[in-house]
């Protein structure tokens, strides 16, 4: 099958969830199909990015977004009802190039990641198309309203409303639709949302495998540290939960690891909190730590960081918003709590009880490796592509 895959970012390096999903889907698809990867790009290109992607497919096309046009379109967005991110990523001169590519390639299927790319192909006729919602973005923005700074709240509230309407509108332009979890599926505002196929992420269990620890920290949290839900989670961990733990265990230290830490995250650094920034091998963050904690209050989708930690044989503590997307069970695969006090108490319990911690870690790894496999999830995707 000849597949045209359109993504809003160049999927290398893998420091963001949408890049990770696109990269691994591309890798699996290329094993049996001819895939033409088309990437929008709004940032400086990593010097190894094209070479890494061409190890998977020789057909890699990157279109750099013009910053002047981006600014103009964001101004126009003020007078539109489309989401700001749709305006941000759309440029008509790039659309012409993409249409020409598609007509030259004549793909059997067009696959778009995230609604922000849908404007480029929604009106193309004669080609079967699939949209990957990935997450219920509108719900993610709605959850962020409370934790946003006062001057951000109007934008976040407006984007949540626009995304809710746009997720509904764009549904009918595509023959097939996928999303990362049934929790997110039910948050898409469309009467036929049950037609959206659940295609979760996977995990490379050979890469993220248990290895010898060199413990320096008791707690670790990882992720893209400029992403607002991760920023909020880092602040909650360092300012709310860690002090509760330290009342009983004063020696406990926290590692916050991940690319592009926001100013608010950098300011969390102290004698007991280390903000590492980018790590060449994120596995080192897991190897240096005892527990993985992700007390998420906002966001959507499936947390790849949890899958990584579970596969590294770490006991994990999180909240329902993250655990429900995975269908994990409390006190079986991980510990799941709501309040700061409850989450802190779980951490104290697991740090003191090595046997319990090891049992939870082993169950977590078994759960992650048996339920989240990239080949299996991509097979669901290709089955959808051939469906009439």
Q: What can you tell me about this protein's structure?
A:
The chain has 388 residues and is an alpha/beta fold. It has 2 domains: 2-202 and 373-385, Glycogen Phosphorylase B (Rossmann fold), CATH 3.40.50.2000; 217-371, Glycogen Phosphorylase B (Rossmann fold, 3-Layer(aba) Sandwich), CATH 3.40.50. 44% of the residues lie in helices and 16% in strands. It has helices spanning 17-29, 49-54, 67-77, 84-89, 92-105, 137-147, 153-171, 182-185, 228-246, 263-266, 283-287, 304-311, 320-326, 340-352, 354-371, 374-385, and strands spanning 2-7, 34-41, 60-64, 109-113, 129-134, 176-179, 197-198, 217-222, 254-257, 273-277, 289-294, 315-318, 335-336. Strands 3-2-1-4-5-6-7 form a 7-stranded parallel sheet, sandwiched between helices. Helix 9 links the parallel strand 8 (217-222) and strand 9. Helix 1 packs across helix 16 and helix 6 (137-147) runs antiparallel to helix 7.
**CATH third-level topology of the largest domain:** Rossmann fold
CATH architecture tag of the largest domain: 3-Layer(aba) Sandwich
How many strands, which pairing sense, and closed or not: the largest β-sheet? 7 strands, parallel
As a percent range, the share of helical residues equals 40-55%
Q: Which outline best applies? A: globular
Instruction: Look at the structure and give the CATH class of the largest domain.
Output: Alpha Beta
Specify the number of helices.
16
- State the total count of DSSP E strands: 13
The whole-angstrom Rg is 21 Å
Low-confidence stretches: none
Major β-sheet strand ordering? 3-2-1-4-5-6-7
Distance between the termini: 14 Å
CATH superfamily of the largest domain: Glycogen Phosphorylase B
Number of domains: 2
Arithmetic mean pLDDT:
96
Structural class by secondary-structure content: alpha/beta
